[in-house]
């Protein structure tokens, strides 16, 4: 009741503000469009996502490992420069993979086997193990994991999370409201229905992760995509032979190099075979997500600095011999049956070493606080791939090739281009070149769509420039 009165006042205030134009923007920067309003469910999810009191001990939130400022992934340059695995709230403990983006992930379907393609799609995590088979929503299923994971937020039981969110938080009233909306019942504080409360927590976080605030589609690429699409041009058809025809829609948004880079991304570089350019959204009216939620083994080498290798036996029984088998490793442990009547476990062999195709949105986003605002920071290190083997920055000694000349995505790009070319390795133009190490898992490595793309710098560099256009303009701040 109180709430609806508050809303009424807000609506009146808004109408008043519009009528008399009393809200003058203070500066041009503030004239930017308002961030989209969140529903109660999404707003509760936002509070939960950023709340550092929901770990044991307190101090870690989802955003600690999925920071919007660096594309909703690990923000710590020192960690990214090394093992790339974020430590848990118990700092000596660590999982085994780099956090993927928590944004633009919500469209990944419940995991299924596509009989025509013979491939597995969907689920959450690099290996898909939050399949969605239990709750019908992989994102909601995923959201409930980190709270209880001993190498992440380390809560002993669901009730700990529920009680902290319900009784000790600034958003307890909102939680009560949302619980009522979702279940039609009031919370019985005398006898907490922990299961129901915990499910609402998962649902709220998933709703926030799917909100326009987390998926604003407001990068320069998106602006171009909308202009071209409105004019009847299909962005997924762009090629080196027709790219100039798209120029009018890129005017003032993408420069020629970036637009040409998109064309190369889509033809010779073959990136779009996995990081697809097909529109997203239920009606196909949103810009692409740069993933088809399939799985592939691109042959990433081991990251020897992965802290998991030195975790106690209880956490990692295999020690240094541990191998990340990705999707195949997960499938081998399942008992479910796929639509073709075969077990998922029987498909493990064909999927060892495969990881989910990640979105490329925000991959180039690197920032630091300059005292007034977040600015692009070339020294902020990002790590790429499930184990963070690839880095955005390199401290290279040779004066002829200083690290500022390296595009943040050049390491992984050069790998795609030359993995299978004898004599190639990293860094590229140095006299002493370290050959590419062996893949962590040789089985199922994709050798047809990558490894020897034959891109010379005049084709490869534009692709890199293009990837920089995928950074969202807006960056949500904690509630
Ligand atoms: C200690 C760091 C850490 C914390 C805290 C953490 N995550 Fe993650 N997150 C990861 C890592 C690492 C992965 C990938 C794990 C894997 O693939 O095995 C991941 C995966 C995900 C994914 C899957 C994305 C995809 O495309 O597959 C989502 C979504 C996500 N996290 C959301 C959350 C939410 C919501 C919370 C808080 C409830 C959270 N994370 C807390 C590190 C963290
Ligand atoms: C055959 C499918 C496929 C093709 C083709 C492909 N990728 Fe990928 N890409 C993947 C998969 C799968 C991963 C994750 C692999 C892993 O971590 O083991 C990935 C990871 C990445 C990442 C790291 C993202 C992150 O968040 O860690 C970048 C950047 C990337 N690809 C860019 C490209 C570019 C640029 C091209 C074209 C030159 C390309 N990819 C071609 C499948 C593909």
Task: Reconstruct the topology from this structure.
Layout: H1 2-20, H2 40-50, H3 62-65, H4 77-81, E1 112-114, E2 119-121, H5 138-143, H6 145-148, H7 158-167, H8 172-183, H9 194-209, H10 220-230, H11 247-250, H12 256-266, E3 295-296, H13 326-332, E4 355-356, E5 367-369, E6 374-376, E7 383-384, E8 390-391, H14 410-418, E9 425-426, E10 434-435, H15 457-467
Antiparallel strand pairs: 1-2, 3-4, 5-6, 7-8, 9-10
Helix pairs in contact: 2-8, 2-9, 7-9, 12-15
The structure holds heme C (HEC) (2 copies).
Residues 100, 269-271, 273-275, 296, 298, 300, 355, 357-358, 360, 363, 384-386, 409, 412-413, 416, 446, 449-450, 463 line the site of one heme C.
Report on the architecture of this protein.
The protein is mainly alpha-helical and about 475 residues long. It is about 30% helix and about 5% strand. The chain is built from 15 helices and 10 strands. Strand 5 (about 365-370) and strand 6 (about 375) form a beta hairpin. The two termini are about 25 Å apart. The structure holds heme C (HEC) (2 copies). One heme C (HEC) binds near residues 100, 273, 384 and 463.
């Amino acid at each position: 009741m109180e709430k609806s009165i508050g809303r009424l006042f807000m609506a009146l205030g808004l109408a008043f503000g519009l009528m008399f134009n009393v809200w003058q923007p203070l500066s041009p920067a503030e004239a930017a469009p308002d961030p989209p309003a969140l529903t109660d469910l999404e707003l509760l999810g936002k509070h939960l996502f950023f709340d550092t009191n929901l770990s044991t001990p307190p101090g870690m939130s989802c955003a600690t490992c999925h920071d919007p400022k660096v594309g909703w992934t690990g923000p710590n340059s020192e960690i990214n420069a090394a093992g790339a695995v974020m430590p848990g709230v118990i700092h000596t403990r660590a999982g085994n993979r780099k956090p993927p983006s928590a944004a633009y992930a919500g469209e990944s379907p419940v995991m299924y086997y596509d009989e025509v393609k013979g491939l597995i799609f969907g689920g959450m995590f690099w290996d898909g193990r939050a399949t969605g088979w239990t709750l019908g929503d992989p994102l909601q299923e995923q959201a409930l994991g980190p709270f209880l994971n001993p190498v992440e937020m380390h809560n002993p039981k669901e009730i700990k999370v529920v009680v902290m969110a319900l009784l000790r938080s600034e958003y307890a009233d909102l939680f009560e409201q949302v619980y009522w909306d979702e279940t039609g019942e009031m919370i019985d504080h005398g006898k907490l229905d922990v299961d129901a409360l915990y499910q609402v927590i998962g649902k709220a976080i998933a709703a926030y992760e799917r909100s326009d605030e987390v998926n604003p589609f407001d990068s320069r690429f998106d602006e171009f995509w909308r202009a071209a699409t409105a004019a009847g041009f299909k962005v997924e058809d762009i090629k080196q032979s027709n790219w100039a025809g798209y120029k009018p829609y890129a005017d003032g948004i993408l420069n020629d190099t970036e637009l040409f880079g998109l064309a190369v991304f889509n033809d010779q570089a073959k990136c779009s075979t996995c990081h697809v350019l097909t529109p997203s959204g239920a009606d196909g009216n949103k810009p692409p997500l740069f993933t088809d939620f399939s799985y592939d083994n691109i042959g990433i080498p081991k990251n020897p600095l992965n802290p998991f290798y030195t975790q106690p036996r209880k956490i990692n029984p295999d020690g240094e011999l541990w191998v990340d088998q990705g999707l195949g490793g997960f499938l081998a442990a399942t008992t479910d049956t796929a639509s073709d009547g075969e077990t998922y476990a029987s498909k493990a062999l064909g999927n060892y070493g495969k990881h989910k195709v990640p979105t490329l949105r925000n991959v180039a986003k690197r920032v630091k606080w300059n005292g007034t605002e977040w600015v692009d920071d070339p020294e902020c290190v990002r790590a790429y791939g499930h184990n963070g083997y690839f880095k955005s920055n390199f401290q290279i000694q040779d004066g002829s090739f200083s690290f500022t000349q390296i595009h943040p995505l050049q390491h992984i790009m050069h790998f795609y281009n030359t993995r299978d070319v004898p004599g190639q390795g990293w860094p590229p133009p140095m006299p002493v070149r370290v050959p590419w190490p062996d893949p962590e898992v040789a089985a199922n490595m994709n050798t047809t769509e990558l490894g020897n793309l034959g891109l010379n710098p005049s084709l490869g560099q534009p692709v890199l420039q293009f990837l920089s256009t995928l950074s969202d303009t807006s960056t949500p701040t904690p509630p």
